[in-house]
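In line with agreed milestones, the collection of sequences with tokenised folds has grown. One record among many is set out beneath this paragraph:
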Amino acid sequence: MHTQRTAWLLAGVVLAGQGFSTQARAVTVDRGLTANPVTFCQAALPAYEGLIRKRPLAVQNEGTATAFVTCGFVNDATSTGTRKVFAYFLNNDSAARQVTCTLVTSVAGANNLYFTKSNTIPANSTGYYLTWEAVVDNGGTYFSRWVALSCSLPVGTGIAYLASFHDSNVGA
């Protein structure tokens, strides 16, 4: 008897619940993607391959001349654009070195934007960043969701960490 009442009660709850519909709501979620640069960076030309070492802790110039690397970022299809990008550098050389990177937005053939920044890294040190923020660098307008870096790495310098931040629309 108790089982039969429970079944009828459950059926009543299910039927009553069908009378109420919940509307799906889209929400914007803050997302950050981080990576060791060995995942996203490569020498920009074959001539630089012999200078760049892709180590577990960095993509580093271990040659005798400046080398260029290109780093691409992953973004999801629901992204509303990139808010912030940063790269973390190290210098294993005995002299201070200046790294320079250009953030390139969009895709080939589109209305691309270029933002160049530099930072001097003291000898034998880590922890120096280059940061691009849409609020500061692009007048508050998010960068495209397709962003990449082109970096000039002097002897002894390397990229040890990369991150990008964007908002994604989740839901319908």
